[in-house]
Amino acid sequence: MEPNIKLICLSKSRLSSYPNSSLIRTGRCFSTDLNALLGTVKANDSESYQDEPLRMVGRYWLTTPDDDSDVYTSAATIRDSEEFAPTYRWSKKSGIRPVIDNKEIYDELFYQRQSGRNGTYEVAYGTYPQYCETIEKEKILEEKYHEGKLEITDKVYTFQNTKYLGENDDFVPQAYKQYYYQGNYYIRFVAPQNLNFLLSNKQPIYQGTPVWIKVSPVMWFLDEEFERLVSKRILISGIQFNRNPYFGDFEKTILYRYMNMILNADLFDKRLNQKNKVISENESLKKLIYRKLPYKKED
Description:
16 strands, alpha+beta, nine-stranded antiparallel β-sheet, 29% strand, 6 helices
């Protein structure tokens, strides 16, 4: 029987409890290309490491409420004077850095850990679209796509529809088919806006540019004190934290529902979807996200 995987976010107090040198603590969490394409990244960071594929950082959601019934996020860049920032709960400009809260999975993966920097341990678990292919490989994939020569799998990934990234827009799911080519899996993502920085393959991105993003293993830091796994990257954005005032009950938020009904399945391959059911399934996903939520539009 598969373990029940529960995804949560870090809290302000938990993030602060890590040593300053810890890579888990840093608010300067590196972003995937997919996350950057959805608008979370503010700018290129001036600091980087040789083994990082890119130099982009962004905000990510925490679970700690602020004094205005909104929520805190991490600081976005090394130039931010504060480690945390109060953020409007309707915003779609903060990303998701998931945490696996499951001791059974932690214990299983503990013995597969690899040493990272600054005394951290890392493990690979689950897969997700993260970084774009080389420019040369993207040209080949785009040609094969238009020729109808790419194999389409039964897997889809679901994000916020890029036509509805405004603060007043509800969750509108958009499914992305997974393609297979020469041993690798990809999604085709059309950029919804111009970017003022380069992605990991050094490609300039303009609105309407098709980007081929490779599905790859997700890396997690081991939180040995709380026996949890903390994502090494900000994986995705474009999802509101909540609509109603937030007072700390994370499990009643839109973000929690998205993480555990959609992101969870996308990461750990629990939901294989027939291609001809994408539209009808997306309608049901939207209903799931808002089901039992005391949602009320504010004046």
